[in-house]
Design a protein that fits this description.
47% helix; 19 helices; Alpha-Beta Plaits; 13 strands; four-stranded antiparallel β-sheet; alpha/beta
């Protein structure tokens, strides 16, 4: 199987699957049986097509008499792959992109589409249509095409952040997401891990805001390295690491993670405590709990229990010192990592998620012992899921108070006592967290 065939299969799987593209890509790459060079090319093609899909479709609609909707999913993705190589990958000759696309149609498309694929791509090259900027007369529509985001999201961000900062958000979403890790302090210090990664040729760099956060500039082969296999680090964006600084976990704590998969937040709490904690990891998905188990085992956590249950309904006979509620959300702060998310999320999902989050928070309040801590977090940037959620919770639960985030975090990451990261400003995923104390 070639890199382009692998990319085509992944894109088609994304179209018909409910899983996010990063999960699908990970599964397909692992069983494709292709070289590391081809793996990297397949990742680039998949990421590029998903990231630029609106612009690719706009260009193709201008060259197809009946538009891209006249093609089936496989045929449409072949044309997108070909056009992405022509428009965005200078290292691949245009004639090669056309020839490879025609070969893919011969294998996976209808016979009558073979000539069409060749003609459309060559027409775009001949007239340099890929250099054309959208000019529909509608500022929002043109921006949606150029930056490949849904119109409703651009309108929302323009209202929330102002037009210049909204454009910065769009640009950030279309930038490659770096690989970032945190040291597993149960096994190794961040300083020693940094030196070992450097010696291994992975070109590590330190975050300016969070020195313990290590960015990997040459990640090829990292998951096969002994450092990963032996659990010396965990992949985690700096925004999630920053939220973890609000945990303040201690040895002897009983810790409950209400939405645990894939295990990053709970394992960070265990590392903070230096071991000696009882971790209860809950998730509504039994399948996802398997990954939590894999991560806990690899990281060497020694006292944990996995529970399949609903965070909004679960009951316990005993309360907890620390409850983590990293709740399901729209994920609008991690679009650069989950490239198909921008096409999956609808504006109506914001209120739907906010209602679920409120139910989880209300239940979480009952599980925190007096003097204990509840940390609420999301990976989105909508007020309804973040600040408004906490303000509503505190109004209904006077037994809790906000513990100001600036006591634990760099001031640049704090807004009104909450942790709030803005992607273009902080160069990390958009996220929110609040530390709440039960009186």
């Amino acid at each position: 199987m070639t890199a382009r065939e692998t990319a085509l299969n992944i894109l088609s799987a994304v179209d018909r699957n409910t899983e996010f593209s990063d999960s699908i890509l990970r599964k397909h790459i692992g069983r494709a049986g292709i070289s590391r060079i081809d793996q990297n090319l397949a990742r680039e093609l998949v990421s590029g097509v998903l990231r630029q899909r609106a612009k690719l479709d706009w260009l193709l609609d201008g060259s197809l008499k009946r538009g891209i909707r006249s093609l089936n999913s496989m045929e449409a993705n072949i044309l997108r792959l070909g056009l992405y190589q022509i428009a965005f990958l200078n290292k691949i000759p245009s004639f090669a992109a056309v020839n490879e696309s025609v070969e893919l149609v011969k294998r996976f498309g209808r016979k009558e589409i073979i000539g069409l694929t060749n003609a459309v791509l060559r027409d775009i090259i001949r007239h340099e249509k890929y250099l054309k900027k959208p000019d529909t007369g509608d500022k929002i529509k043109d921006t949606a095409i150029e930056y490949s985001h849904p119109e409703w999201l651009i309108q929302r961000w323009a209202r929330q952040f102002g037009w210049p900062d909204a454009l910065k958000m769009l640009e950030f979403d279309n930038s490659p997401a770096p690989v970032v890790v945190r040291a597993n302090r149960l096994k190794i210090s961040a300083e020693v891990l940094f030196e070992q990664l450097k010696a291994g040729g992975f070109e590590p760099g330190l975050s300016e805001i969070l020195p313990q956060s290590i960015e990997i500039n040459n990640p090829s082969g990292l998951v096969d390295n002994e450092l990963f296999v032996r659990g010396h680090f965990y992949f985690q964006d700096p925004s999630a690491q920053a939220a973890g600084m609000l945990y303040r976990a201690r040895s002897g704590h009983r810790i409950l993670d209400l939405c645990a998969a894939p295990g990053g937040k709970a394992s960070l709490a265990a590392e903070q405590a230096g071991g000696g904690t009882d971790i209860f990891a809950l998730d509504i998905s039994r399948q996802k709990l398997k990954r939590v188990k894999e991560n806990f085992t690899r990281l060497g956590l020694d006292s944990w229990c996995l529970i399949n249950g609903d965070a909004a309904e679960i009951k316990f006979k005993q309360s907890f010192d620390l409850v983590l509620a990293d709740v399901p959300c729209t994920g609008l702060g991690v679009i650069r990592r989950r490239l198909d998310l921008r096409w999956r999320i609808k504006e109506s999902d914001i209120l739907r998620m906010a209602e679920l989050q409120s139910r989880i928070l209300d239940n979480a309040a009952k599980l925190v012992k007096p003097g204990g801590t509840l940390v609420y977090s999301t990976c989105t940037v909508t007020p309804e899921e973040n600040q408004d959620q906490i303000e509503g919770f505190l109004a209904c639960h006077p037994e809790f108070s906000l513990d100001a985030a600036q006591k634990y975090l760099p001031a640049t990451l704090v807004q009104d006592g909450f942790m709030a990261t803005r992607p273009p400003l902080h160069k990390m995923d958009g996220a929110f967290a609040a530390r709440l104390i039960r009186k």
